[in-house]
Amino acid sequence: MSDQQACSGCGFTHQCICHRIPNTESQIHLVLLTHENELTRDTNTGKLLQHSLKQCQSFIWQRKTPPAELLALLNDETHQPLLLFPSDKSIECQQAVSDTVSERTPLFIILDGTWQEAKKMLNKSPWLQTIPQVHLDVTSESSYTLRRNQDSGHLCTCEVGIELLKALNEAQPAKLIEDYYQHYLKVFQADKSGHALR
Ligand SMILES: [Zn+2]
């Protein structure tokens, strides 16, 4: 691109990688509940999930009430909402899925923000506190390098989605999204340095 305008799809200025966005599908339903601070962070990786997984929706977090469309999903008897939030009462996500009655589609909610923001979102939202909490047993290290002050061991939003798909034996979409994510990280560094990836 020569006009130095950032692509409205992938957000990059010196190259566009929109053609690399995979088109994947999953048995589960994924909801990103996004803190408004994330909207202005170019280091947000939730959008990668949203772009590449058909069953992924994103909503802006509101303290008192869930967005109407999300509320409808939460109350829909064909879904089983599960909140990805490691705590002393969370259960492993694959276990949670096998405990779910088969007529219900697991609806995983990922709090899309920093760890501090995620805790705040949960603490301030009674409507989130009633949703069963689940966690991932992740052994792989995060390769997320875009935020320096991030605690090690914390996965970014896109990695959480990838690990969730892996844990639920959805290897194919997980692989495609992971390849795109890894490419995105490399392009991000090049783009911020003012050039295309060489
Ligand atoms: Zn693009």
UniProtKB/TrEMBL annotation:
Stretch forming the signal peptide: none
Entry keyword annotation includes Chaperone: no
Occurrences of domain DTW (ranges): 3-193
Superkingdom: Bacteria
GO MF annotations in UniProt: tRNA-uridine aminocarboxypropyltransferase activity
UniProt-listed GO biological process terms: tRNA processing
Pfam families: DTW
The protein's Enzyme Commission number: 2.5.1.25
UniProt keyword terms in alphabetical order: S-adenosyl-L-methionine, Transferase, tRNA processing
UniProt name for this protein: tRNA-uridine aminocarboxypropyltransferase
